Amino acid sequence: MKFVILFFLVTSCSMISTQTAKTPAKIKQEKVVIKPKDFSIRPGEAITIDFPVSSESTDSVLKCDDQKIPFFKKDDKYLAFVAETYFSNQKPMTCVISKNGVEKKVANISVSDKTFPSEKLNVDQRRVSLNPKDLKRVQKEQVFLNKNYASSPSHPYFEEPFMLPIDAYVTSIYGSRRLFNNSKQSQHLGTDFRAAVGEPIYAANAGKVVVARDLFFTGGTVTIDHGLGIFTIYGHLSKVEVNEGDYIPKGVRLGLAGATGRVTGPHLHWGVKVNGHFIEGESLVKASEMVGDKN
After folding, report:
1. Is there a contact between 234 and 288 (Cβ–Cβ < 8 Å)?
2. Which is nearest to 250 in space by CA: 170, 156, 174, 169?
3. Count of CB atoms within 10 A of residue 214's CB?
4. Neighbours of 294 (CB within 10 A)
5. CA Rg value for the chain
6. How far is CA 100 from CA 34, 57, 104, 195, 205, in A?
7. CA-CA distance, 180 to 46, in Å (whole number)?
8. Within this chain, do residues 107 and 122 fall inside the same structural domain, yes or no?
9. Residue 174: burial class (beta carbons within 10 Å; 0-12, 13-18, 19+)
10. DSSP string, 176-189
11. What's the CATH code of the domain at 94?
12. Tens of pLDDT along 232-249?
């Protein structure tokens, strides 16, 4: 009887062991194939590129021609804002994601040509030929601004597309080559809107106020950090109604238009900076439409 029981136990264990060995292995999750897309951009503009969410892109680094670009998840894909400098050499860009030393191409970006007009302006000579005191102030302000531009988080503060800060006629477009008082040349890396003194100015999107003070060139100024290295600048305000450190929603009133700083008359100067480049604001408005798209 003991022999029978022992034989039964040995046989049963052998069967269990055999069944366990034959249990099929877990099926590996199918990888998403990332095929590079083709995009086009012009000097001084921003575009949005997208690529699918996959195991390769999770915790990866995105670079476009060696410049690190932050990206974020939107539904079943990743989005990233890519900007091209005003001073472009029109060299094509390649964007790749890298993880653990392995790189995969996600975008090919061609750069087309763009021409900019010229204009002459007459302003207070003090704002053109700086005396030592004013120069020291400008240099100090630039250090402060650069510090803010270098500390944007890699995530967005916004969940909606960008909008224009005011519905008004454009008096000076982005990129125009300027000659001040027939002596000093520069580029206008922003957009000027017609705005009477006291006209309300609104935030183009949600973000953190990092500048809310008077500056030498732009007068009453508000700068918003929207995350992802995206900033919007509102200049020449007669009154600033927000404070540095405030987190604000899209469309909140920032202040009132004016004629402070280096100006020829009342207007709003709207600047937009993306990944270190001052770009045309309307291109960001268009590029951000994908943020609001519903899949």
Report:
1. no
2. 156
3. 13
4. 4
5. 28
6. 17, 11, 11, 52, 35
7. 28
8. no
9. buried
10. -EEEETTTEEEE--
11. 2.60.40.10
12. 999 999 999 999 999 999
Domain end among 94, 111, 128: 111
Amino acid, single-letter form, for residue 47 = I
Ramachandran category for residue 175: left, alpha or beta (phi over 0 → left; psi -120 to 50 → alpha): left
- Give the tens place of pLDDT for each residue, 108-155: 999 998 888 777 666 666 666 778 999 999 999 999 999 999 999 999
Sign of the four-CA dihedral 253, 251, 78, 110: negative
Contact call for residues 50 and 78 (beta carbons, < 8 A):
yes
Beta bridge mates, 170:
193
The whole model's pTM is what? 0.83
Listed residue (196, 172, 209, 168) closest to 256, CA to CA: 196
Domain total of the chain: 2
Question: Using an 8 Å Cβ cutoff, are 70 and 226 in contact?
Answer: no
Under a CB-based contact definition with an 8 Å cutoff, are residues 95 and 68 in contact? no
Return the residue matching tokens 């040509």: 113
Residue 192 to residue 168: CA distance in whole angstroms: 10
Tell me which residue range forms the domain holding 167: 118-292
127 contacts 262 by C-beta, under 8 angstroms = yes
Q: Which of 77, 82, 90 is nearest to 230 (CA)?
A: 82
Residues 269 and 253 in one domain: yes
**For residues 40 and 110, is the Cβ–Cβ distance under 8 A?**
yes
* 7-59 pLDDT per residue, tens: 343 444 444 444 444 444 443 444 556 778 999 999 999 999 999 877 556 67
CATH of residue 276's domain is 2.70.70.10
Length in residues, the chain: 295
C-alpha distance across the termini of the chain, in Å: 70
